[in-house]
Amino acid sequence: MKVILLDEIKGKGGEGDVVEVAQGYAENFLFPKKLAVAATKGNLKQLDERRNNIAKREAVRLATANETKAAFEGKTVTVDVKVGDEGILFGSVTAAMIADAIKAQLGMDIDRKRVELGKPIKVAGAHTVAISLYREIKAEVVVLVGVTAEELAAEAEVEEAAEVETEAAAE
């Protein structure tokens, strides 16, 4: 069934796109939530008339997403959790916890569904997490789990010194 999307739907398209979807998906999900309308001749004609407005909104969304991406670049967020021996967490860090930490520490309100975390984080340390802002635009944030930036820097210095010692001993 062909439908005209009225809003962005992940994996399907953006506002104004004409896409093919299953009839049940359209009738039971898209239409009741007003995310799409059927692609009839009348609706397609209205879409042609609205194309200019849709293009303007799309440009604003892209600009906003790029600004947000620039604001996220190089940022670090700390999530406080209990850490056991050998850096294993009691529990795990979820996308919702990362979204809350971003809101509290960076002042940016991000929906937890936009945090792309393949599986929950269960090990302490620094983890790079992608945040889907709009369509293909993604920002990356470093999430420190159970450690602070100072502790991480100190660990890196100790490891570097150990590597130098092993190289010197090998020679």
Automatic annotation (TrEMBL):
Pfam family, one: Ribosomal_L9_N
Keyword Ribonucleoprotein attributed: yes
KW Ribosomal protein (keyword) present: yes
Biological-process GO terms, alphabetical: translation
GO molecular function list: rRNA binding; structural constituent of ribosome
UniProt keyword terms in alphabetical order: Ribonucleoprotein, Ribosomal protein, RNA-binding, rRNA-binding
Domain Ribosomal protein L9 span(s) in chain numbering: 13-40
Entry GO terms, CC: ribonucleoprotein complex; ribosome
Domain of life: Bacteria
SUPFAM superfamilies in the cross-refs: L9 N-domain-like, Ribosomal protein L9 C-domain
PROSITE patterns to which the protein is assigned, alphabetical: RIBOSOMAL_L9 (PS00651)
Family designation: Belongs to the bacterial ribosomal protein bL9 family.
PANTHER family attached to this UniProt entry: 50S RIBOSOMAL PROTEIN L9
Stated role: Binds to the 23S rRNA.
HAMAP family per UniProt: Ribosomal_bL9
NCBIfam families the record matches: L9 (TIGR00158)
This protein's name: Large ribosomal subunit protein bL9
Higher taxonomy: Bacteria, Bacillati, Actinomycetota, Coriobacteriia, Coriobacteriales
Gene: rplI
